[in-house]
Amino acid sequence: MPNNMIKSKNKIAVLGAGHGGLAMAGHLALMGHNVNLFNRGEERLWGVKSSGAIEITGEVEGFGKINMATTSIKDAIEGVELIMVVVPASGHRWIAEQIAPYLVDGQIIVLHPGRTFGALEFKNILIQKQVKADVIISEAQTFIYASRATGPSQVHIFRIKHSIPVASVRAHLIPKVINKLRQFYPQFVPGDNIFKTSLENIGSVFHPALCVLNAGWIEHDIDYQFYHEGATPSVARVLEKIDEERVNVSEALGIRAITARQWLYMAYSATGDTLFEAMRKNAGYRGILAPRTLKMRYLEEDIPCSLVPIASVGNMLGVETPTINSIINLACQLNGTNYWAIGRTVENLGIAGMSLRELRLLAIGESPKQ
């Protein structure tokens, strides 16, 4: 986005200095905003501390000067209205626990993305920590950038997505969140509620199954394009079944979720008669290589924080999810981890046994159980 589109200079905290955090922090700083970058470990900050800036290449080019790079979450969010959480969804709970003592009235928290029920989990942690500050907790349906860190303070942005819904725990506050985000991101649009943004988490369709079904190539450390070469016609048919089951769970909640093919068109303007064709035509995926290990976020984040909650809610509502269950079980075996136990199940989210009415009220922040 050209710098002349800036309406005002904002002070923003970006929590997380991985591929996504570097892209967001660098781009926001390049737009002219004061950006505080937080990471829990020093190793991902030393390059930014040394240079004082993040170098961006790709769809956006330039150097974004960072106001602060710190391992102190208190310092990062002090005096900041907008807190952008850009860590794997498996880290949302930890971030909530760490920022709880320092939150103040009026701050807006945005999970980029929430994956499935991220905002709900975040809210529950703040309640457990007895946070009294009046903050807005919101989540994006997906992450705005397709990006990869290329050095200690360098990041390449392959693509900036076109249209990303955002919803807050209290649905009536969604316009306030959108108005704030649109000061620098016109791509963000109002979502209906946090259940819809959660169940339109398309990463749940693409990421885990592509890793599980290409596990041999990944462990052989072979260079191949993850989305373009990893998604063969037969693999894409499995993705379509996962997508169908996700949509069925959404319908049981009274939510009309977009399909993965519709999402590819919305986010990237990629079209096709099948999911395979649409993925192949998506220029935004070109050049993105497969991971080098199965111990990475496409399994360790997207299984417990995306597929497990979809399957768990489906089970509670009587919706069968056999393909999703199979991918979860295979991932558990591949990584030797019980993702069912550590994931966002209805029990862990505190929604076990809720009626459909109670779930719908919860989606807009008016649950009688709060």
Tag the structure with descriptive keywords:
globular; four-stranded mixed sheet; single chain; 42% helix; 370 residues; 18 helices; alpha/beta; N-(1-d-carboxylethyl)-l-norvaline Dehydrogenase, domain 2; eight-stranded mixed sheet; disordered N terminus; Rossmann fold
Outline the structure in words:
Helix 5 links the parallel strand 7 (108-111) and strand 8. Residues 1-7 have low confidence and may be disordered. This protein has two domains: 3-199, Rossmann fold (3-Layer(aba) Sandwich); 203-362, N-(1-d-carboxylethyl)-l-norvaline Dehydrogenase, domain 2. 42% of the residues lie in helices and 16% in strands. It is globular and about 50 Å long. The strands form two sheets. An eight-stranded mixed sheet has the order 5-2-1-6-7-8-11-12, sandwiched between helices. Strands 4-3-10-9 form a four-stranded mixed sheet. Helix 8 (203-212) packs across helix 14 (302-317) and helix 10 packs across helix 14. With 370 residues, the chain is an alpha/beta fold. It has helices spanning 19-30, 46-51, 73-77, 92-99, 118-128, 174-181, 194-199, 203-212, 215-219, 233-252, 260-268, 275-281, 297-300, 302-317, 322-335, 339-342, 346-349, 356-363, and strands at residues 11-15, 34-38, 53-58, 62-65, 68-70, 82-85, 108-111, 136-140, 145-151, 154-160, 164-168, 188-190. The protein is built from 18 helices and twelve strands.
Pick out the low-confidence regions. 1-7
CATH topology name of the largest domain: Rossmann fold
Oligomeric organization of the protein chains: single chain
- The count of domains is 2
The value of Rg in angstroms is 19 Å
Strand content: 15-25%
Q: Can you identify the CATH class of the largest domain?
A: Alpha Beta
Shape: globular
Q: Total strand count, please?
A: 12
Helix and strand sequence: EHEHEEEHEHEHEEEEHEHHHHHHHHHHHH
